[in-house]
Amino acid sequence: MGFWQEAFAAVKENDPAARYNLEIILTYPGVKALAAHKISHFLWQHDIKLLARVHAQFWRFLTQIEIHPGAEIANGVFIDHGSGLVIGETAVVETGVKLYHGVTLGGTGKDTGKRHPSVRRGALISAHSQLLGPIEIGEYARVGASAVVTKDVPKRVTVVGIPAKIVRVHGGDTPERNCAQLERERHVSFYDHMGGI
Ligand SMILES: CC(C)(COP(=O)(O)OP(=O)(O)OC[C@H]1O[C@@H](n2cnc3c(N)ncnc32)[C@H](O)[C@@H]1OP(=O)(O)O)[C@@H](O)C(=O)NCCC(=O)NCCS
């Protein structure tokens, strides 16, 4: 499927209020922002960087969604509402990901090179959550509204709060023990990655 078919399918799957394709084009800022990003990203990749950034800013003005032209965003991503959504230059967003208003896929200001999150297939990133640094959000993970996430999140878990902690393991047979265990592993791997404490 191409960009438009996947965009329409993603909206209809996630929003029962969506009725037909023309309505989706006219009334879903997320679809417009993602379509415009295809063009900004093309310009960025072909080293027409200033025009890419100006184009992205123009669409930011119209949609209130700011996507850096360098960000890699797959087809089939769903942005609901979208106001205040910010996606940084080195972010990666895979297919099936859902992003709500007020979300930041941003940097901490401490990293260079890859400095924004990678959000894997099917993950749900709830309203106003802040995902900071070159972290990985695993497939089908759920990030609760207003969470602040600065460490990797394993696949198929729910994290909530500030700093975000694992509160559900989807599909585990003993969820409580799994949460604590996964949270410990996550903590250890974060500090290993930072070079110890
Ligand atoms: C996180 C979320 C996706 C639910 O995921 P889930 O895996 O079904 O998790 P649950 O609802 O079982 O909640 C797990 C625990 O976290 C708590 N929790 C859920 N969301 C939370 C949040 N945003 N902040 C703090 N705690 C939260 C629940 O109360 C529950 O606590 P308990 O174990 O003490 O009962 C959902 O709560 C959420 O935040 N949705 C927001 C979606 C959104 O942005 N909507 C905007 C539409 S306009």
Notes on the structure:
By secondary structure, the protein is of the alpha/beta class. The protein has a single domain (3-193), classed as Hexapeptide repeat proteins (UDP N-Acetylglucosamine Acyltransferase, domain 1, 3 Solenoid). It is 36% helix and 19% strand. The protein has 5 helices and 15 strands. The chain has helices at 3-14, 21-27, 29-45, 49-63, 175-193, and strands at 66-67, 72-73, 78-79, 86-87, 92-93, 98-99, 104-106, 118-119, 124-125, 130-132, 136-137, 142-143, 148-149, 157-160, 165-169. The strands form 3 sheets. A 6-stranded mixed sheet has the order 3-6-9-12-14-15. The chain starts with a helix and ends with a helix. The mean pLDDT is 94. Residues 81, 100, 124, 126-127, 142, 144-146, 158, 160-161, 167-168 line the site of coenzyme A.
Provide the descriptors you would attach to this structure in a database record:
197 residues; alpha/beta; UDP N-Acetylglucosamine Acyltransferase, domain 1; six-stranded mixed sheet; five-stranded parallel sheet; 15 strands; binds coenzyme A; acyltransferase; amino-acid biosynthesis; Serine_acetyltransferase
* CATH fold-level assignment: UDP N-Acetylglucosamine Acyltransferase, domain 1
Distance between the termini: 47 Å
Q: Could you say which structural class the secondary elements and strand pairing correspond to?
A: alpha/beta
Bound small molecules, by name, code or SMILES, are: coenzyme A
Strand coverage percent: 15-25%
The CATH class is identified as Mainly Beta
Keywords: Acyltransferase, Amino-acid biosynthesis, Cysteine biosynthesis, Cytoplasm, Repeat, Transferase
Pathway: Amino-acid biosynthesis; L-cysteine biosynthesis; L-cysteine from L-serine: step 1/2
GO molecular function, one term: serine O-acetyltransferase activity
Main location: cytoplasm
